[in-house]
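A quick aside before the break. I want you to see a complete sequence-to-structure record at least once, exactly as it would be stored in a machine-readable document. Don't worry about memorizing anything.
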Amino acid sequence: MMKKYPITKFRYAAVAAVMLTIVAGCSKSVLDKKPLDIISDAVVWSDPKLIDAYLNQCYAEMSFYHEMPYGASQDWFDPVMASTFADEAMSAWTPTPRSHWINVSGGVYEYWSYPTVRRLNVFIEKLGTADIDETLKSRYSAEARFLRAFSYFNMVKRYGGVPLITKPQQLDDPEEELYPNRATEEEIYDFIIAELDELQSSLPDDVGGVVPGRPTLFAALALKSRVAMYAASIAQWGTVMAGGVVGINAARANDFWTKSYQASRDIITSAKFSLFAKYEDKTENFRKLFLEKDNVEVIFAEKFTGITGRGHSWDMWQNPFSYNVWAGGQQSSVFLEMVESFENTDGSSPIVDRQKVASGHLFTLDELWGKKDPRFRASVYTHGTSWLGETLDYHDAILMPDGSWNSVGAFRGVNARSRSVGRPTPFGILKYLDEGKGIIPERYYSDTDYIIFRLGEIYLNYAEAAFELGHNSDALWAINEIRHRAGMPALEEVTRSAIRQERKIELAFEGNRYFDLRRWRTATTELSSNYSGLRFIIDGPSIQEGQYDPLTHKFRLYVVENVLGTPTPVFAARNYYLPISLSRTSANPKLVENPGYQ
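That is the input. The structure line, written in C-alpha coordinates, reads:
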Protein backbone atom coordinates (compact mmCIF):
# COMPACT_ATOMS: atom_id res chain seq x y z
CA MET A 1 0.00 0.00 0.00
CA MET A 2 1.24 3.43 -0.90
CA LYS A 3 2.28 5.49 2.09
CA LYS A 4 0.18 8.60 2.61
CA TYR A 5 1.85 11.99 3.22
CA PRO A 6 0.30 15.30 4.20
CA ILE A 7 -0.46 17.31 1.08
CA THR A 8 1.46 20.26 2.43
CA LYS A 9 4.64 18.19 2.51
CA PHE A 10 4.46 17.61 -1.21
CA ARG A 11 3.73 21.27 -1.77
CA TYR A 12 6.81 22.38 0.20
CA ALA A 13 8.95 19.81 -1.58
CA ALA A 14 7.75 21.03 -4.93
CA VAL A 15 8.45 24.65 -4.04
CA ALA A 16 11.91 23.72 -2.81
CA ALA A 17 12.67 21.87 -6.03
CA VAL A 18 11.56 24.80 -8.12
CA MET A 19 13.68 27.20 -6.05
CA LEU A 20 16.74 24.97 -6.41
CA THR A 21 16.23 24.90 -10.15
CA ILE A 22 15.94 28.68 -10.26
CA VAL A 23 19.02 29.17 -8.13
CA ALA A 24 21.06 26.71 -10.15
CA GLY A 25 19.99 28.07 -13.49
CA CYS A 26 20.01 31.77 -12.69
CA SER A 27 22.99 32.24 -10.44
CA LYS A 28 24.60 34.51 -13.00
CA SER A 29 21.41 36.35 -14.00
CA VAL A 30 19.69 36.97 -10.64
CA LEU A 31 22.07 36.63 -7.75
CA ASP A 32 24.73 38.66 -9.49
CA LYS A 33 22.40 41.62 -10.02
CA LYS A 34 22.87 44.75 -7.94
CA PRO A 35 20.21 45.44 -5.26
CA LEU A 36 17.63 47.93 -6.48
CA ASP A 37 17.21 49.59 -3.06
CA ILE A 38 20.89 50.23 -2.37
CA ILE A 39 23.12 52.64 -4.26
CA SER A 40 26.84 52.09 -3.92
CA ASP A 41 29.31 54.81 -2.99
CA ALA A 42 30.93 54.59 -6.41
CA VAL A 43 27.62 55.30 -8.12
CA VAL A 44 26.65 58.16 -5.81
CA TRP A 45 29.92 60.05 -6.11
CA SER A 46 30.03 59.83 -9.89
CA ASP A 47 26.49 61.07 -10.53
CA PRO A 48 25.82 64.83 -10.11
CA LYS A 49 22.11 64.16 -9.57
CA LEU A 50 22.75 61.71 -6.73
CA ILE A 51 25.31 64.05 -5.20
CA ASP A 52 22.73 66.82 -5.33
CA ALA A 53 20.15 64.52 -3.71
CA TYR A 54 22.60 63.78 -0.87
CA LEU A 55 23.15 67.50 -0.36
CA ASN A 56 19.39 68.11 -0.43
CA GLN A 57 19.06 65.71 2.49
CA CYS A 58 21.59 67.82 4.39
CA TYR A 59 19.53 70.94 3.68
CA ALA A 60 16.42 69.14 4.94
CA GLU A 61 18.14 68.44 8.26
CA MET A 62 19.06 72.08 8.84
CA SER A 63 17.12 74.10 11.39
CA PHE A 64 16.85 77.44 9.66
CA TYR A 65 13.41 78.25 11.08
CA HIS A 66 14.31 80.22 14.17
CA GLU A 67 16.77 77.44 15.00
CA MET A 68 14.18 75.07 16.45
CA PRO A 69 15.67 71.61 15.89
CA TYR A 70 13.29 69.16 17.48
CA GLY A 71 11.06 68.33 14.55
CA ALA A 72 8.37 71.01 14.43
CA SER A 73 9.99 73.26 11.87
CA GLN A 74 7.61 72.80 8.95
CA ASP A 75 4.73 73.07 11.37
CA TRP A 76 6.22 76.44 12.36
CA PHE A 77 5.70 75.98 16.07
CA ASP A 78 9.27 77.21 16.41
CA PRO A 79 8.72 80.89 15.63
CA VAL A 80 6.13 80.78 18.38
CA MET A 81 8.69 79.44 20.79
CA ALA A 82 11.34 81.87 19.58
CA SER A 83 9.00 84.71 20.51
CA THR A 84 7.83 83.18 23.78
CA PHE A 85 11.41 82.67 24.91
CA ALA A 86 11.91 86.40 24.53
CA ASP A 87 9.83 89.34 25.75
CA GLU A 88 7.62 89.44 22.66
CA ALA A 89 4.78 87.01 23.29
CA MET A 90 3.49 84.00 25.18
CA SER A 91 2.06 80.70 24.03
CA ALA A 92 -1.70 81.19 23.99
CA TRP A 93 -2.47 77.49 24.13
CA THR A 94 -0.27 76.21 26.94
CA PRO A 95 1.04 79.13 29.01
CA THR A 96 4.10 77.95 30.90
CA PRO A 97 6.92 79.61 32.82
CA ARG A 98 10.16 80.03 30.90
CA SER A 99 11.87 77.58 33.24
CA HIS A 100 9.98 74.88 31.33
CA TRP A 101 12.08 75.50 28.26
CA ILE A 102 15.61 75.39 29.73
CA ASN A 103 16.58 72.69 32.20
CA VAL A 104 19.54 70.48 33.09
CA SER A 105 18.51 68.06 30.35
CA GLY A 106 18.79 70.81 27.76
CA GLY A 107 15.16 71.70 27.11
CA VAL A 108 13.35 72.11 23.82
CA TYR A 109 15.67 74.84 22.52
CA GLU A 110 18.79 72.70 22.46
CA TYR A 111 20.59 71.95 19.20
CA TRP A 112 23.32 69.31 19.29
CA SER A 113 23.63 68.83 15.55
CA TYR A 114 26.49 66.35 15.19
CA PRO A 115 24.51 63.85 13.07
CA THR A 116 24.13 66.62 10.47
CA VAL A 117 27.77 67.68 10.90
CA ARG A 118 28.87 64.09 10.28
CA ARG A 119 26.74 63.84 7.14
CA LEU A 120 28.28 67.07 5.87
CA ASN A 121 31.80 65.89 6.74
CA VAL A 122 31.20 62.70 4.76
CA PHE A 123 29.89 64.74 1.84
CA ILE A 124 32.89 67.07 1.83
CA GLU A 125 35.39 64.19 2.05
CA LYS A 126 33.75 61.99 -0.60
CA LEU A 127 33.23 64.93 -2.93
CA GLY A 128 36.98 65.45 -3.04
CA THR A 129 37.43 62.31 -5.15
CA ALA A 130 34.11 62.48 -7.01
CA ASP A 131 34.26 62.16 -10.79
CA ILE A 132 32.25 65.26 -11.71
CA ASP A 133 32.87 68.69 -13.21
CA GLU A 134 35.37 70.63 -11.07
CA THR A 135 33.31 73.83 -11.05
CA LEU A 136 30.25 71.94 -9.83
CA LYS A 137 32.37 70.09 -7.28
CA SER A 138 33.70 73.38 -5.93
CA ARG A 139 30.20 74.84 -5.58
CA TYR A 140 28.80 71.74 -3.86
CA SER A 141 31.71 71.72 -1.44
CA ALA A 142 31.16 75.40 -0.64
CA GLU A 143 27.45 74.80 0.00
CA ALA A 144 28.22 71.92 2.37
CA ARG A 145 30.79 73.99 4.25
CA PHE A 146 28.25 76.82 4.47
CA LEU A 147 25.74 74.44 6.06
CA ARG A 148 28.39 73.08 8.42
CA ALA A 149 29.35 76.62 9.45
CA PHE A 150 25.67 77.40 10.07
CA SER A 151 25.35 74.24 12.19
CA TYR A 152 28.33 75.21 14.32
CA PHE A 153 26.94 78.72 14.72
CA ASN A 154 23.64 77.32 15.95
CA MET A 155 25.55 75.30 18.52
CA VAL A 156 28.08 77.89 19.68
CA LYS A 157 25.40 80.51 20.32
CA ARG A 158 23.70 78.01 22.62
CA TYR A 159 26.54 76.17 24.36
CA GLY A 160 29.69 78.21 23.84
CA GLY A 161 32.61 76.01 22.83
CA VAL A 162 31.76 72.58 21.43
CA PRO A 163 33.87 69.77 19.93
CA LEU A 164 35.21 70.85 16.55
CA ILE A 165 34.91 67.87 14.21
CA THR A 166 35.71 68.44 10.54
CA LYS A 167 36.16 64.90 9.19
CA PRO A 168 34.04 61.73 9.45
CA GLN A 169 34.84 59.78 12.60
CA GLN A 170 35.54 56.05 12.26
CA LEU A 171 35.23 53.34 14.91
CA ASP A 172 38.96 52.61 14.73
CA ASP A 173 39.97 56.26 15.17
CA PRO A 174 42.17 57.11 18.18
CA GLU A 175 40.25 57.59 21.42
CA GLU A 176 41.07 61.29 21.57
CA GLU A 177 39.28 61.73 18.24
CA LEU A 178 36.28 59.63 19.18
CA TYR A 179 35.94 61.41 22.53
CA PRO A 180 37.03 64.98 21.76
CA ASN A 181 37.35 67.88 24.15
CA ARG A 182 35.29 71.02 23.73
CA ALA A 183 37.03 73.71 21.70
CA THR A 184 36.91 77.19 23.18
CA GLU A 185 34.07 79.47 22.20
CA GLU A 186 36.58 81.76 20.51
CA GLU A 187 38.00 78.88 18.44
CA ILE A 188 34.55 77.93 17.17
CA TYR A 189 33.77 81.49 16.09
CA ASP A 190 37.17 81.78 14.41
CA PHE A 191 36.57 78.49 12.57
CA ILE A 192 33.15 79.60 11.29
CA ILE A 193 34.44 82.93 10.02
CA ALA A 194 37.52 81.36 8.39
CA GLU A 195 35.29 78.82 6.62
CA LEU A 196 32.98 81.54 5.33
CA ASP A 197 35.95 83.55 4.07
CA GLU A 198 37.36 80.55 2.20
CA LEU A 199 34.16 79.30 0.59
CA GLN A 200 32.84 82.66 -0.66
CA SER A 201 34.68 82.55 -3.98
CA SER A 202 33.10 79.19 -4.84
CA LEU A 203 29.53 80.40 -4.39
CA PRO A 204 27.75 82.26 -7.21
CA ASP A 205 27.23 86.01 -6.96
CA ASP A 206 24.48 85.97 -9.60
CA VAL A 207 21.43 86.17 -7.33
CA GLY A 208 18.97 85.55 -10.15
CA GLY A 209 20.77 82.50 -11.49
CA VAL A 210 21.17 80.46 -8.32
CA VAL A 211 18.99 77.43 -7.56
CA PRO A 212 16.14 78.62 -5.28
CA GLY A 213 16.93 78.01 -1.64
CA ARG A 214 20.68 77.56 -2.22
CA PRO A 215 23.21 80.06 -0.82
CA THR A 216 25.05 82.68 -2.83
CA LEU A 217 28.20 84.58 -2.00
CA PHE A 218 25.94 87.10 -0.27
CA ALA A 219 24.32 84.48 1.95
CA ALA A 220 27.82 83.61 3.18
CA LEU A 221 28.53 87.29 3.81
CA ALA A 222 25.21 87.65 5.66
CA LEU A 223 26.04 84.70 7.89
CA LYS A 224 29.48 86.19 8.54
CA SER A 225 27.87 89.53 9.38
CA ARG A 226 25.67 87.88 12.00
CA VAL A 227 28.28 85.46 13.35
CA ALA A 228 30.98 88.11 13.82
CA MET A 229 28.47 90.43 15.51
CA TYR A 230 27.60 87.68 18.01
CA ALA A 231 31.27 86.96 18.69
CA ALA A 232 32.01 90.65 19.20
CA SER A 233 29.14 90.94 21.65
CA ILE A 234 30.35 87.96 23.69
CA ALA A 235 33.86 89.43 23.78
CA GLN A 236 32.59 92.87 24.82
CA TRP A 237 29.92 91.96 27.37
CA GLY A 238 30.55 88.32 28.27
CA THR A 239 32.89 86.70 30.78
CA VAL A 240 35.55 84.10 30.03
CA MET A 241 34.99 81.02 32.21
CA ALA A 242 35.98 77.36 32.37
CA GLY A 243 39.29 77.95 30.63
CA GLY A 244 37.71 79.67 27.67
CA VAL A 245 35.14 77.00 26.91
CA VAL A 246 32.67 79.83 27.35
CA GLY A 247 33.45 83.48 26.77
CA ILE A 248 35.82 85.31 24.42
CA ASN A 249 38.86 87.44 25.22
CA ALA A 250 37.72 91.07 25.47
CA ALA A 251 40.72 92.15 23.38
CA ARG A 252 39.10 90.46 20.36
CA ALA A 253 35.91 92.56 20.41
CA ASN A 254 37.00 95.19 17.88
CA ASP A 255 38.38 92.51 15.57
CA PHE A 256 35.00 90.79 15.42
CA TRP A 257 33.07 94.08 15.14
CA THR A 258 35.29 94.96 12.17
CA LYS A 259 34.57 91.65 10.46
CA SER A 260 30.82 92.16 10.89
CA TYR A 261 31.06 95.76 9.71
CA GLN A 262 33.00 94.82 6.57
CA ALA A 263 30.77 91.87 5.65
CA SER A 264 27.67 94.03 6.08
CA ARG A 265 29.19 96.83 4.02
CA ASP A 266 30.10 94.42 1.21
CA ILE A 267 26.47 93.35 0.91
CA ILE A 268 25.08 96.88 1.09
CA THR A 269 27.49 98.31 -1.49
CA SER A 270 27.10 95.37 -3.88
CA ALA A 271 23.84 96.90 -5.18
CA LYS A 272 22.46 93.36 -5.53
CA PHE A 273 19.72 94.03 -2.98
CA SER A 274 17.62 96.96 -1.81
CA LEU A 275 15.16 97.67 0.97
CA PHE A 276 11.71 96.57 -0.19
CA ALA A 277 9.74 99.70 -1.14
CA LYS A 278 7.20 98.51 -3.68
CA TYR A 279 4.05 99.98 -2.10
CA GLU A 280 3.37 103.58 -1.15
CA ASP A 281 1.44 102.69 1.99
CA LYS A 282 4.10 101.97 4.62
CA THR A 283 2.06 99.38 6.50
CA GLU A 284 1.14 97.48 3.35
CA ASN A 285 4.74 97.65 2.15
CA PHE A 286 6.22 96.19 5.33
CA ARG A 287 3.61 93.46 5.44
CA LYS A 288 4.14 92.46 1.80
CA LEU A 289 7.91 92.29 2.36
CA PHE A 290 7.38 88.92 4.05
CA LEU A 291 4.80 87.59 1.59
CA GLU A 292 6.25 88.32 -1.86
CA LYS A 293 8.73 85.61 -2.77
CA ASP A 294 12.26 86.41 -3.92
CA ASN A 295 11.78 90.15 -3.57
CA VAL A 296 14.65 92.65 -3.77
CA GLU A 297 15.40 92.50 -0.03
CA VAL A 298 15.71 88.73 0.35
CA ILE A 299 19.28 87.42 0.55
CA PHE A 300 18.58 83.83 1.59
CA ALA A 301 15.26 82.08 2.26
CA GLU A 302 13.86 78.65 2.97
CA LYS A 303 11.53 77.78 0.10
CA PHE A 304 8.00 76.41 0.42
CA THR A 305 5.45 75.34 -2.17
CA GLY A 306 2.39 74.52 -0.06
CA ILE A 307 0.24 71.43 0.08
CA THR A 308 1.35 70.26 -3.37
CA GLY A 309 4.95 69.97 -2.24
CA ARG A 310 6.56 71.28 0.90
CA GLY A 311 4.27 73.37 3.08
CA HIS A 312 4.14 74.75 6.60
CA SER A 313 1.38 75.62 9.06
CA TRP A 314 2.12 79.18 10.14
CA ASP A 315 -1.13 80.60 8.74
CA MET A 316 -3.21 77.90 10.35
CA TRP A 317 -1.74 78.30 13.82
CA GLN A 318 -1.37 82.07 13.86
CA ASN A 319 -4.43 83.47 12.08
CA PRO A 320 -6.93 85.27 14.33
CA PHE A 321 -8.74 83.15 16.88
CA SER A 322 -11.99 81.58 15.58
CA TYR A 323 -10.97 82.18 11.94
CA ASN A 324 -9.82 78.58 11.87
CA VAL A 325 -11.52 75.32 10.94
CA TRP A 326 -10.23 73.77 14.15
CA ALA A 327 -11.62 76.70 16.19
CA GLY A 328 -8.04 77.58 16.99
CA GLY A 329 -5.70 80.31 15.84
CA GLN A 330 -3.63 83.01 17.53
CA GLN A 331 -1.20 80.47 18.90
CA SER A 332 0.93 83.39 20.13
CA SER A 333 -0.40 86.20 22.28
CA VAL A 334 1.76 89.32 22.08
CA PHE A 335 2.49 91.14 25.34
CA LEU A 336 1.17 94.66 25.91
CA GLU A 337 4.74 95.74 26.66
CA MET A 338 5.81 94.60 23.19
CA VAL A 339 2.95 96.58 21.65
CA GLU A 340 4.04 99.62 23.63
CA SER A 341 7.58 99.24 22.25
CA PHE A 342 6.37 100.45 18.85
CA GLU A 343 6.97 104.21 18.88
CA ASN A 344 4.52 106.91 17.84
CA THR A 345 5.33 108.80 14.67
CA ASP A 346 5.03 112.19 16.38
CA GLY A 347 7.33 111.31 19.27
CA SER A 348 4.53 111.17 21.85
CA SER A 349 4.49 108.40 24.43
CA PRO A 350 3.49 105.00 23.01
CA ILE A 351 2.66 103.70 26.50
CA VAL A 352 -1.00 103.15 27.40
CA ASP A 353 -1.78 105.83 29.98
CA ARG A 354 -2.41 103.86 33.19
CA GLN A 355 -3.87 106.91 34.93
CA LYS A 356 -6.51 107.28 32.22
CA VAL A 357 -7.23 103.57 32.47
CA ALA A 358 -7.73 103.82 36.24
CA SER A 359 -9.99 106.86 35.89
CA GLY A 360 -12.39 105.05 33.55
CA HIS A 361 -11.44 107.08 30.50
CA LEU A 362 -13.25 106.06 27.30
CA PHE A 363 -10.67 105.36 24.59
CA THR A 364 -10.93 105.29 20.81
CA LEU A 365 -8.84 103.11 18.52
CA ASP A 366 -7.33 106.19 16.95
CA GLU A 367 -6.25 107.39 20.38
CA LEU A 368 -4.55 104.06 21.06
CA TRP A 369 -3.00 103.09 17.74
CA GLY A 370 -3.52 105.99 15.34
CA LYS A 371 0.00 107.37 15.67
CA LYS A 372 1.82 104.05 15.90
CA ASP A 373 4.86 103.14 13.82
CA PRO A 374 3.39 101.68 10.58
CA ARG A 375 5.31 98.48 11.30
CA PHE A 376 2.99 97.88 14.25
CA ARG A 377 -0.08 97.41 12.06
CA ALA A 378 1.98 95.22 9.70
CA SER A 379 3.33 93.04 12.51
CA VAL A 380 0.48 92.75 15.04
CA TYR A 381 -3.26 92.26 14.69
CA THR A 382 -5.65 93.43 17.39
CA HIS A 383 -9.02 95.06 18.05
CA GLY A 384 -9.92 96.96 14.89
CA THR A 385 -7.66 95.08 12.45
CA SER A 386 -9.29 94.22 9.12
CA TRP A 387 -9.34 90.48 8.41
CA LEU A 388 -11.16 88.58 5.66
CA GLY A 389 -13.56 91.44 5.04
CA GLU A 390 -14.41 91.82 8.73
CA THR A 391 -13.09 93.88 11.62
CA LEU A 392 -11.44 91.97 14.45
CA ASP A 393 -13.31 92.57 17.68
CA TYR A 394 -11.69 91.76 21.03
CA HIS A 395 -14.21 93.23 23.46
CA ASP A 396 -14.96 90.83 26.30
CA ALA A 397 -17.42 92.83 28.40
CA ILE A 398 -19.92 95.69 28.20
CA LEU A 399 -19.88 98.66 30.54
CA MET A 400 -23.49 98.86 31.75
CA PRO A 401 -25.38 102.12 32.52
CA ASP A 402 -25.05 101.40 36.26
CA GLY A 403 -21.26 101.22 35.97
CA SER A 404 -21.00 97.43 36.25
CA TRP A 405 -19.41 95.13 33.67
CA ASN A 406 -21.47 92.51 31.90
CA SER A 407 -19.53 89.64 30.34
CA VAL A 408 -22.43 87.25 29.66
CA GLY A 409 -25.43 87.43 27.39
CA ALA A 410 -26.04 90.62 25.44
CA PHE A 411 -27.03 94.25 25.85
CA ARG A 412 -29.16 96.14 23.31
CA GLY A 413 -28.56 93.39 20.78
CA VAL A 414 -24.76 93.32 21.17
CA ASN A 415 -23.05 90.24 22.61
CA ALA A 416 -21.13 90.87 25.80
CA ARG A 417 -18.12 88.96 24.45
CA SER A 418 -16.91 88.94 20.86
CA ARG A 419 -15.99 85.85 18.85
CA SER A 420 -12.26 86.58 19.00
CA VAL A 421 -12.02 86.54 22.79
CA GLY A 422 -10.39 83.47 24.26
CA ARG A 423 -6.67 84.15 24.22
CA PRO A 424 -4.50 85.66 27.00
CA THR A 425 -4.03 89.00 25.19
CA PRO A 426 -5.90 90.71 22.34
CA PHE A 427 -2.73 90.85 20.22
CA GLY A 428 -1.59 88.27 17.66
CA ILE A 429 1.36 88.03 15.27
CA LEU A 430 0.44 89.36 11.83
CA LYS A 431 3.94 89.19 10.34
CA TYR A 432 4.16 86.38 7.76
CA LEU A 433 0.36 85.85 7.81
CA ASP A 434 -1.14 85.72 4.32
CA GLU A 435 -4.74 86.92 4.52
CA GLY A 436 -5.23 85.84 0.92
CA LYS A 437 -5.08 82.19 2.02
CA GLY A 438 -8.44 82.60 3.76
CA ILE A 439 -9.36 80.06 6.41
CA ILE A 440 -6.74 77.33 6.14
CA PRO A 441 -8.41 73.89 6.14
CA GLU A 442 -5.43 71.80 7.22
CA ARG A 443 -1.79 71.85 8.28
CA TYR A 444 1.03 72.33 5.76
CA TYR A 445 -1.06 74.40 3.35
CA SER A 446 1.06 77.55 3.61
CA ASP A 447 3.66 78.32 0.95
CA THR A 448 5.13 81.58 2.27
CA ASP A 449 8.93 81.43 2.17
CA TYR A 450 10.77 81.85 5.45
CA ILE A 451 13.39 84.61 5.16
CA ILE A 452 16.68 83.67 6.82
CA PHE A 453 18.67 86.75 5.81
CA ARG A 454 17.33 90.03 4.45
CA LEU A 455 18.91 93.40 3.79
CA GLY A 456 17.01 95.03 6.66
CA GLU A 457 18.93 92.91 9.16
CA ILE A 458 22.21 93.67 7.42
CA TYR A 459 21.62 97.42 7.80
CA LEU A 460 21.02 96.85 11.52
CA ASN A 461 24.12 94.68 11.88
CA TYR A 462 26.10 97.36 10.06
CA ALA A 463 24.72 100.07 12.35
CA GLU A 464 25.57 98.15 15.51
CA ALA A 465 29.09 97.26 14.41
CA ALA A 466 29.73 100.80 13.16
CA PHE A 467 28.59 102.31 16.46
CA GLU A 468 30.74 100.00 18.58
CA LEU A 469 33.74 100.88 16.36
CA GLY A 470 33.07 104.60 16.74
CA HIS A 471 31.76 105.16 13.20
CA ASN A 472 28.69 107.00 14.42
CA SER A 473 27.85 108.67 11.11
CA ASP A 474 27.68 105.27 9.40
CA ALA A 475 25.50 103.91 12.18
CA LEU A 476 23.12 106.88 12.02
CA TRP A 477 22.82 106.60 8.24
CA ALA A 478 21.95 102.89 8.39
CA ILE A 479 19.35 103.32 11.15
CA ASN A 480 17.69 106.19 9.32
CA GLU A 481 17.53 104.16 6.09
CA ILE A 482 15.50 101.56 7.98
CA ARG A 483 13.31 104.19 9.63
CA HIS A 484 12.70 106.03 6.36
CA ARG A 485 11.48 102.84 4.68
CA ALA A 486 9.18 102.24 7.66
CA GLY A 487 7.71 105.75 7.56
CA MET A 488 9.32 106.90 10.80
CA PRO A 489 11.09 110.23 11.36
CA ALA A 490 14.87 110.26 11.15
CA LEU A 491 16.98 110.26 14.28
CA GLU A 492 19.31 113.20 14.84
CA GLU A 493 21.80 111.18 16.83
CA VAL A 494 22.50 107.51 17.33
CA THR A 495 22.89 105.68 20.62
CA ARG A 496 23.31 102.07 21.60
CA SER A 497 19.77 101.98 23.01
CA ALA A 498 18.36 103.46 19.78
CA ILE A 499 20.06 100.75 17.71
CA ARG A 500 18.75 98.02 19.99
CA GLN A 501 15.26 99.53 19.92
CA GLU A 502 15.28 99.54 16.12
CA ARG A 503 16.31 95.87 16.04
CA LYS A 504 13.47 95.01 18.41
CA ILE A 505 10.87 96.59 16.12
CA GLU A 506 12.24 95.89 12.64
CA LEU A 507 13.03 92.24 13.43
CA ALA A 508 10.05 91.57 15.72
CA PHE A 509 8.85 87.95 15.71
CA GLU A 510 11.62 86.84 13.34
CA GLY A 511 13.46 84.82 15.99
CA ASN A 512 16.29 87.26 16.73
CA ARG A 513 15.20 88.92 19.96
CA TYR A 514 16.03 86.10 22.40
CA PHE A 515 19.59 85.70 21.16
CA ASP A 516 20.06 89.46 20.95
CA LEU A 517 19.26 89.76 24.66
CA ARG A 518 21.62 86.90 25.41
CA ARG A 519 24.58 88.26 23.45
CA TRP A 520 24.09 91.76 24.94
CA ARG A 521 24.04 90.11 28.39
CA THR A 522 20.84 92.02 29.26
CA ALA A 523 18.56 88.97 29.48
CA THR A 524 18.96 88.67 33.25
CA THR A 525 17.11 91.99 33.47
CA GLU A 526 14.92 92.02 30.36
CA LEU A 527 13.63 88.48 30.75
CA SER A 528 13.16 88.55 34.52
CA SER A 529 9.88 90.45 34.40
CA ASN A 530 6.15 90.01 34.48
CA TYR A 531 4.15 90.94 31.40
CA SER A 532 0.71 92.38 30.78
CA GLY A 533 -2.37 91.86 28.67
CA LEU A 534 -5.33 94.13 27.92
CA ARG A 535 -9.13 93.90 28.00
CA PHE A 536 -11.52 95.97 25.89
CA ILE A 537 -14.81 96.83 27.64
CA ILE A 538 -17.16 98.60 25.25
CA ASP A 539 -19.28 101.53 26.42
CA GLY A 540 -22.85 100.23 26.83
CA PRO A 541 -24.82 103.50 27.22
CA SER A 542 -23.69 104.69 23.78
CA ILE A 543 -24.89 101.51 22.04
CA GLN A 544 -27.90 102.05 19.81
CA GLU A 545 -30.10 98.96 19.47
CA GLY A 546 -28.10 96.37 17.55
CA GLN A 547 -25.62 98.95 16.32
CA TYR A 548 -22.00 98.50 17.24
CA ASP A 549 -18.84 99.09 15.22
CA PRO A 550 -15.52 98.00 16.79
CA LEU A 551 -13.71 100.58 14.66
CA THR A 552 -15.55 103.60 16.04
CA HIS A 553 -17.09 102.58 19.36
CA LYS A 554 -15.46 103.85 22.55
CA PHE A 555 -14.30 101.48 25.23
CA ARG A 556 -12.71 101.26 28.62
CA LEU A 557 -9.47 99.40 29.10
CA TYR A 558 -8.37 97.04 31.82
CA VAL A 559 -4.69 96.15 32.09
CA VAL A 560 -4.22 92.49 33.03
CA GLU A 561 -1.11 92.32 35.18
CA ASN A 562 1.08 89.20 35.09
CA VAL A 563 -0.76 87.64 32.19
CA LEU A 564 1.53 84.59 32.44
CA GLY A 565 -0.15 83.76 35.74
CA THR A 566 3.09 82.45 37.20
CA PRO A 567 5.73 83.72 39.62
CA THR A 568 7.99 86.37 38.15
CA PRO A 569 10.20 84.67 35.54
CA VAL A 570 13.89 84.57 36.34
CA PHE A 571 16.57 84.39 33.68
CA ALA A 572 19.59 83.21 35.65
CA ALA A 573 23.11 84.14 34.59
CA ARG A 574 23.82 80.49 33.82
CA ASN A 575 21.11 80.59 31.13
CA TYR A 576 23.37 82.62 28.86
CA TYR A 577 24.54 79.13 27.92
CA LEU A 578 22.49 75.97 27.68
CA PRO A 579 23.67 72.89 29.59
CA ILE A 580 25.67 70.28 27.72
CA SER A 581 23.46 67.84 29.68
CA LEU A 582 24.23 64.82 31.84
CA SER A 583 23.56 62.32 29.05
CA ARG A 584 26.31 63.83 26.90
CA THR A 585 28.87 64.37 29.66
CA SER A 586 28.31 60.77 30.78
CA ALA A 587 28.86 59.48 27.25
CA ASN A 588 32.00 61.60 26.87
CA PRO A 589 33.59 62.61 30.21
CA LYS A 590 35.84 65.08 28.34
CA LEU A 591 32.83 67.32 27.74
CA VAL A 592 33.05 69.88 30.52
CA GLU A 593 29.62 70.98 31.72
CA ASN A 594 28.78 74.67 31.47
CA PRO A 595 29.06 76.86 34.59
CA GLY A 596 26.03 76.68 36.85
CA TYR A 597 24.85 73.25 35.69
CA GLN A 598 27.42 71.04 37.41
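Two observations worth writing down. Residues 41-68+111-272 form a domain with the Serine Threonine Protein Phosphatase 5, Tetratricopeptide repeat fold (CATH 1.25.40.390). The first strand starts at residue 89 and ends at 91. We'll return to this after the break.
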